[in-house]
Every structure is written in C-alpha cells, then in structure tokens.
Amino acid sequence: MSGTDEERRLARVALTWLAEPGTRAVYQLVDRLGPVATLDLLLDGGSPDGQLNGTVAARSAAGDARAVAAEALDRADRLGARLVTPDDDEWPTRVAGLAKLRLPDASRRVDVETAPPLCFWVRGGWPLGEALDRSVAVVGARAATGYGQHVATELGYGLAERDWTVVSGGAFGIDAAAHRGALNAGGVTVAVLACGVDRPYPVGNTALFDRIADTGLLVSEWPPGAEPLRPRFLIRNRVIAAGTVGTVVVEASARSGATQTARRAIYTGRVTMVVPGPVTSAMSVGVHELLREQPKVRLVTGVAHVLEEVGRIGADLAPLARGPQRPADTLDDDARSLLEALPRRGVRGVDALAARAGVDLRTALRKLSLLEELALVVRREDGYALAPPASPKRGTPATTETETPGSL
Amino acid sequence: MSGTDEERRLARVALTWLAEPGTRAVYQLVDRLGPVATLDLLLDGGSPDGQLNGTVAARSAAGDARAVAAEALDRADRLGARLVTPDDDEWPTRVAGLAKLRLPDASRRVDVETAPPLCFWVRGGWPLGEALDRSVAVVGARAATGYGQHVATELGYGLAERDWTVVSGGAFGIDAAAHRGALNAGGVTVAVLACGVDRPYPVGNTALFDRIADTGLLVSEWPPGAEPLRPRFLIRNRVIAAGTVGTVVVEASARSGATQTARRAIYTGRVTMVVPGPVTSAMSVGVHELLREQPKVRLVTGVAHVLEEVGRIGADLAPLARGPQRPADTLDDDARSLLEALPRRGVRGVDALAARAGVDLRTALRKLSLLEELALVVRREDGYALAPPASPKRGTPATTETETPGSL
C-alpha cells in the first residue's frame, strides 16, 4: 500500500470529509487502491462513479481536503481524542461485515451506502477493538416510557456486570438508560455518536458523556467539531449494529431509528433481539413489528436471555483482557495488596481498599498516592480505580478530566 | 352401527361416566365398534386395555352405567340442556382433530389421553357446530392484570363485532373479560366448562354465565351435576384448542393452564397466537416463553392481527347463518319493519326500534308484543332481541330464563 503511515491516516480523514461515511464507491476504491491513491484519484475527478465525482468537486470547492484533515487531526490531539484506522491494532474488525450488508428494498441513500467505516475518532482510555470484542448494543426510543428505561437500565447493568461492553447511541431515553446501567455496574460502555466526540449530542446528556469518556469510550466516524446532521444518525446506526456481537431493541415506535438499527443488525448477520412490551404502548409497536416480520429476531425478557444468545458467539471469543499489565515488581507488599484490592472496573473507596488489603488507613493513603504517581491507579471523587490501559498506538493519555468548551 | 339412535346416545353418556373424556382406548373402540358395542364390551371387562378394565369395574361397582346415563339425560331435559353427539347435525366436526394430537414429552394422564369427545352437553339456543365454525378461543390467566383484561375485552369485542364466536373457559380474569367483550358487542360467545352446564364454575361468574346461556352457549363434556375436578380443566382445554380455528393467549404465567391450551392448539395444527406484555409482569412470562420456544406461535397485538391469522382459514368457511328463518309473511308492514330493525345479535331498546322502523312508540310496543307471541322476538330487560334459533335435533326451547338451583 502506497504512502507513509501518516499519509494514509490523513487520506482516510480527507476521504471521510469528501464523501459521507458509508459511501460504497469510496470504500471499494480504498479496498483496492489504498487510501492515498484513492484520494489522489478522487481529487483528480477520476472516479468511475460520476455522482461521486460531483460530490467531491463540490466539497473541494469549499476547501482543501488534506488541509481540512490535518486541522482535524490537530484539533483531536489538542482535546485528547485519537484517530483509529484499520492499520491500528485497536481497529474493531467486526465492522468489516458491513461490506456485505445489502438491505432489502433499499432506496434511500442511507440504506444503500452502508459500507464499512474508513476511520474512527475515539475519546477514552480503552482500546476500541478490545472494548467492542465482547459488546452488545442496547438501543431504543428517545421518547421511552418508564418501563422501557427500567428494562434498558437493568440490561445495561447486567451485561456490564458480566464483562460485556454496552454500546449505544448516547440519545435520551433507552440509549441513556443503557449507558447509565453499565456505568452503575462499573462496566465499560461505548457511545457511538453521529457528530464530533468533542461535542456529543444531545447537550442534555453532557454529564453522561463525561462519565462515559472517563471510563468507557466516545466514538464517531466524523471529526471533532462535526455537527449531528439528521442523516448521520442512520449512517451511525450501521456501526452500532455491525460493531457488536448482538443488538437489543428495548422500545421502538413504528419504523423508527431503533428498528432501522435492528434491520442493519439482522442483515449483517448479527444476533438481533427485542424486548416486548404492552401492546397498548406506542413505544412497543416497532419491536412487535420486528418480531412479527423478521423470523430471525429473538424475543428476550432479560439479561439471561441476551447472554444465552450472544454467549454462543461470545464463547468463541478470546477472553477479555482485564486492565493494564504493568510492571508492579518494584512494589512492596502493602502496595501490591492495595492494587489487588481494586476492582477490575469501577471505583472502590479508600476505607474499603484498606480493609480488603489488610492495611491501616494511613498506610493505604500513602501507598495509593505512590500507585497514582506510578500511573497504576487513578483517583476519583469517591475512591480509586485501576488506571485505564494506554491506547496501544498513539499513546494518548487516559482522559480523566473533562474538557471544558473553552479548552477546545 | 348397532343400536337405535337413543341407545347410541345413552351409550356415549355411559362411556363418559365410566372413563373420563379423552381416554384414547375408549375413543378407539367407539370409532371401530360404535358406542353400544363398546359399552357392552367394557361392561363385560373385555377391553384389551387392562387399566381401562380396572377403571370400568371400579365405576360399575358404584352404579349401573346405563341407569346413571338415563338419569343424566332426564336431568338435562328438565333444565333445558341437550346432548349433542357426532350423530347430530350440530356436532362440531373440528374436534375430530384431537384424534391425531400427540403432545411431546407427555407423561401426565391429561397429556396422554387427549382423544376427541364422545358427546357434549349444551345449554343455549345456537347450534353448537354453527357457533364454533367461525370461532376463536381467547384464554389466559385467572389472576390477570388490568392490562390483560383490557386487551382480552377488546379482542372479544372486536372478534364478535366481525361475526366470530369467542370461545373461552368461563374463568375469572382473561376468560371472563373475553366473554364480556363479545357479549358487549352483541356477539355469540361460548363457555366450555369443566363441570355440568347447570352449575357453571366459578360461582362468582354466575351472572356472566346466565348472559352467555341467554345469547350464546354453555358447553361441557360432563353431564349436569358434574363437579369441576382439578384434572378436568386440562381435559376441557383440549376442546377449546381443537374446537376453534385459532387460540389467542392474552396473559399466562409460566407453565399455566393457558400455556397448556396453547400447546394443545399448536399440536392440533390450530393457529396459535399470543399477546405480549411487559417483561416485568409475571402474567406475561408464559406468553413470552411460548414465543421463544414455539416457532409456530404468532405474536398478535390486536384484533386486526388475529383476523389476519384466522382469516386465512376462515375465508374457506361457509358464511355464518344469521339468526332464524321463519315465516313472517302474515305480518303487516309495521311489524315487519320492527323485525328488520332488530340487530342480528344482541338487544335494541324499544325507543331505538320505533325510530328505526319509523313507527310511533305505542305501535311499536303493540307490534313487538305480537312478534313475541309469534316467538319471533324475545323481550329482554333493556329491549328486544331476535329469538335464538331452535336447536336443530332435539328441539330444546331457547333458554331465556335462568334456572334456579331449586328447579333442578
């Protein structure tokens, strides 16, 4: 493949700016020629696809694609986000399944142009691929009922408790409930966004996004600063569907975004599950439609059923690497005991750590400070947690502080 | 076939007393030898089935089977109930499907002995076979929720409104709600009982049973006076399942009677439908289990879905005969107009009848009295209704008054 590593990364970002993610013609050219040659070809107006040439020409009139891409990468660096491409170890390989996705009766652009992503922007400490290896999407209606939110929270909690990453879209309603459930269990949750990871939408979920970035991941195909334009939600949904082992729809009105995610999951061959509800609820019409019309959709009533479905696939996966492996050889017994007393995920208070490690409180505080200096633990408002693993390639430090808008 | 018509009827009743309905060995003998020869054989201890011989001997020690049967027929006559056998025009042919019913993993007697009925006891004016021709069973939990009762009432109403007979078991909860919905629509509803039609169980539904007997049917395999013994409910359930075009389960706890009815419907090849509910409700666990475990079970969310499922079969059925055809040639124009102003099913008030017929109230009252004398209409508490058709064979008069226990 031609070009240096940096040139290839820049080209992928430029291509995503020239044509929306998912554009099949671009993906196929990249697959054949690599990103650098594809970018050259498109900027020369040399695509065999006339419509694509028109799109590229229009975009190019608004700016220089490479300059825009370089600026996006700089901006990401400044705010502690990173670019992840198929060249990176942390690339989530499962999204390649989108290359084969053909939705029946596809007529809208978002239903036809469903090719795999060219790159992801990521904010948060976990390697993206590892976070998605054992992952389940829990999605549903924004205007969720109390029932739906209760069920989504329980699912998020139960999956996280069993070391499954909970993936959703960060929206109000079901999405937020699923993320919160996972966070409450001290688990990993990933919000896949339809806008820049520096300005997650909706603004009303800002506190939630900060918590997710702190212990999980914010992910987007669009560069920092990108706006959440309407069609982007459906483009984004294909990543939620294909990037996970399975998708659970908790509540969905008829022909809603969540049922579209389910269709993408079904036709990518992913385990697709729905939670039924009262037939008197408009928020369950979409899930009942899926159950009636899609023979492969499975009815689930709780986390046990979900695990039963994804477990068949999950059993074949490599066990999830748990936290960072770092040299702790130089530590004394007290410090090592404290390190072992920390939960694999989530936070534990100093009192509880001291009790578990069998050391007095004063010793615990001294040793925890040492561990913090060694970047083996991080201090939280309510205790200590294991430090998230460094991202494997770019070495971005874990984002433990929330950026204020002024710092962008 | 040997014996007179009366001998054959008596033999069927005696056989049902000697062994519980559904006993396969008895059904197969009757199928081969006819009821009279089968009764002779069994009373002689000549069945090839040793266990059956034991049962018959024990029963015979308690009384003479033919005498018991004759007494039951007399009792039925006194209270306006009738016996219906396969020799009668009104026999519901669909129950013959039970001859092929084999439940998987059957170990209990009630799951093994699922042969077709030998006879039915019927109370009410409609011919049984006609009532069941276009029929849907709506069954479910006794401890139903408000949600389940709401859905069952809507289904009962909507099906009756479209001239489908609503069949259920007369129990509290879902059953009662389904019957009531049908009654409110002025439709035909059939309660299949696990006890005598003169003492329908539960007593708390007495007013409901009276309304059903008035415009629909009470049906049982057991003779008048029979008690609702526990195993009889499951024996009865096979008739609800096989005697209808399809069964809808509205709410059901895990491994409940309603899920057993559904299994009988599935394995008799009937359309089997369930209404989902909140996964947080114990009363929906059974229906969700059916949806997860039985690929042929269809999810329905309302009457439109049910009609879609049963309509495929229903479309092939002869149209339901609507009410009696009687000589009205001698009537004057006012009387004929009033007769035409009556609803096909259900009751209409005198004011409304007068308005529809275009006659004054005084004339309406006079002509309606005449029509009542001619047995063309019946007076009800809240107006008038078309008289139910006479039963085709035995000519039992329509039961318009409720028997008091003292009259039995």
Automatic annotation (TrEMBL), chains A, B:
<feature type="region of interest" description="Disordered">
    <location>
        <begin position="385"/>
        <end position="408"/>
    </location>
</feature>
<dbReference type="InterPro" id="IPR036390">
    <property type="entry name" value="WH_DNA-bd_sf"/>
</dbReference>
<dbReference type="GO" id="GO:0009294">
    <property type="term" value="P:DNA-mediated transformation"/>
</dbReference>
<feature type="domain" description="Smf/DprA SLOG">
    <location>
        <begin position="83"/>
        <end position="310"/>
    </location>
</feature>
<protein>
    <submittedName>
        <fullName>DNA-processing protein DprA</fullName>
    </submittedName>
</protein>
<dbReference type="InterPro" id="IPR003488">
    <property type="entry name" value="DprA"/>
</dbReference>
<dbReference type="InterPro" id="IPR057666">
    <property type="entry name" value="DrpA_SLOG"/>
</dbReference>
<comment type="similarity">
    <text>Belongs to the DprA/Smf family.</text>
</comment>
<feature type="compositionally biased region" description="Low complexity">
    <location>
        <begin position="395"/>
        <end position="408"/>
    </location>
</feature>
<dbReference type="Pfam" id="PF02481">
    <property type="entry name" value="DNA_processg_A"/>
</dbReference>
